[in-house]
Amino acid sequence: MSSDGLTYYDQPLLQQPVWKWMIPAYYFVGGVTGAALVMSAAAQVRSDFPGRRQLMRRCQWIAFGGSGVSAVLLVADLGRPEKFLNMLRVFRPTSPMNMGAWILSGVGATAPGALLLQGRSGLLGLIGSACGLAAGLFGTALATYTGVLVSNSAVPAWQESRRAMPVLFGASAMASLGLLLHIVPSTEQGRRIAGTFGRIGQVAELIAGAVMERQASRVERVGRPFKREVSGTMWRTAAALTAGSVLLAVLPGKSKTKRVASSVLGMLGSALMRFSIEQLGKASARDARASFQHQRASEKRRSMS
Fold it and tell me: Cα–Cα distance between 157 and 17 in angstroms, integer?
């Protein structure tokens, strides 16, 4: 026996996640897509500011393109398109993966309707408006369900921080969309709305990331991947890029160069955070002692409740 506890010949208790790079990329693109649908629906409800129509159209185009890219990334990881279709043969609310397939299908059904029909007169316009509001609901789920999916596993680092991860993914989606909109040509008010949306998301992302690491570190061994090896380096770098983006944004000056640099740093930080989550899971699954200690800690908490 060691101070770290018993293991079975130091062999991992769990298999490492086998997802390829397409899945973290899907987390990022899907998050931006979901946030764009939410912002478009919010702009649809609020009709009292200049540039509303322009903001809605940009969000709708981002969502339309993002939903297509998301589908391609997901099918590419699955290997065959029929695997995605097979998930739609059942409706299982207890399965985040199954619900994710339905959410993505809902986005694919409503986002084009909002883009093509909103603003038209008569029945077509009403259908477009309904699609826009429905797409906003699907977008909220798309921006956050991947955090539920990842944390709904036996991987210690993911499971121990399961309450914070959906919030982290949602905040990251807000940040990424706001920063993307902040660098494209727009009206002054539209750019200000996008910038505020993005900065709120970034601050929430940093807070949720710190909470997630703290939750995982309640069991010291489970929290190790946040501080060591490739996973720790990626996690810290992502947080540093996001913090640097926020710091650059609050510095004096309103030049386009500063705005673009801050936005690019923030989007890189958000994307890297998604990839670091994948590495954290792999490192945690490889650590046999983390699995055993996490099980014991969970059992102890259940016995005390």
Answer: 12
Cα–Cα distance, 139 to 106 (Å, whole number): 9
Q: Contact at 8 Å (CB) between 143 and 131?
A: no
pLDDT in tens, 200-214: 999 999 999 999 999
Helix or strand or coil: residue 222? coil
d(CA 109, CA 132): 11
**One domain for residues 117 and 203:** no
Distance, first Cα to last Cα, the chain: 29
104-118, 264-278, 286-300 — which one is most confidently predicted on average? 264-278
Q: Which one of 152, 178, 213 terminates a domain?
A: 152
CA 228 to chain centre: 23
CA gap 55, 265 in Å, rounded: 23
Q: What is the pLDDT of residues 1-18, one digit of tens each?
A: 444 455 555 666 666 777
Cα separation of 65 and 151, whole Å? 27
Place of tokens 């912002």: 39
